[in-house]
Amino acid sequence: MGLQKTRYIPALSFRWLTWLYDPLLSWGMREETFKRALIELADIKAGMNVLDLGCGTGTLTVMLKRERPDARVTGLDGDTEVLEIARTKAGQAGVDIRFDHGMAFSLPYADGSFDRVVSSLVIHHLTSADKRRAFLEVQRILQPGGSFHIVDFGPPFDSLTKLQAFVMKNLEEAADNFAGSILPMLHESGFEADITRTMKTIFGPIALYRANKSTGKNFIDIN
User: In the chain, N or C: fewer CB atoms in 10 Å?
Assistant: First the structure.
């Protein structure tokens, strides 16, 4: 699918709000806490190839390289404007990171290119069909034994998060997340997946998903 044929949703839905993205995450979403938890759960080793899928302004990408300087880190995003911000951040931090332009459901990488793929607050931007395509693409580019680690909105787990999910379910394409559909989609794509942690934020519940590549498992090819 070409980039021009799919509706692209930038950070905060509108391009003119891009400048608010970093401060809003820091203030309302416990960004430092969940991104550090994501890095810890990814268990990145020296020499691994790591992709930050939908890297946005590069906060997680830079954190990854600082925490794991012996890993080769790549950031990918569909928004050229935020990629320029990410490159500036990496330069200011003095870290060597490759940044590529591309879409999650049509990755510009060869099969088995990465040991780890991480993604922070990206999946809820994708339509249901593009979520499935993206998961199949991640399955393709992971090496055998590789894993995919996601932090994004998740199913509610108490009265407050149920109320938040009811209010926020029409945000972009987040209904799948709040309905608990992400795990079944990952399973359909051939992953052995589970939720490792949940957290509350002012915008709703988030979940940390771990999805291990399962080479011996059949999956649905929707292409």
Answer: C
Q: What is the DSSP string of 7-27?
A: ----TTSSGGGGGGHHHHHHH
Q: By three-state DSSP, how is residue 169 classified?
A: coil
User: Residue 191 and residue 83: Cα distance in Å, rounded?
Assistant: 29
Q: Where are the domains of the chain?
A: 3-212
Dihedral angle at the C-alpha atoms of 56, 123, 102, 99, nearest 10 degrees?
30
For 71-102, write each residue's pLDDT tens digit. Answer: 999 999 999 999 999 999 999 999 999 999 99
Q: Select from 121, 86, 99, 149 the least CA-distant residue to 11.
A: 121
**How many angstroms separate the CA atoms of 141 and 114, rounded?**
6
Residue 33 Ramachandran class (φ > 0 left, ψ -120 to 50 alpha, else beta):
alpha
User: For residues 198 and 153, what is the distance between their CA atoms, to the nearest angstrom?
Assistant: 9
What b/e sequence results for 13-23 when a residue is b if at least 16 CB atoms lie within 10 Å of its CB, and e otherwise?
Answer: eeeeebeebbe
- The pTM is what? 0.83
For the domain 3-212, what is the CATH code?
3.40.50.150
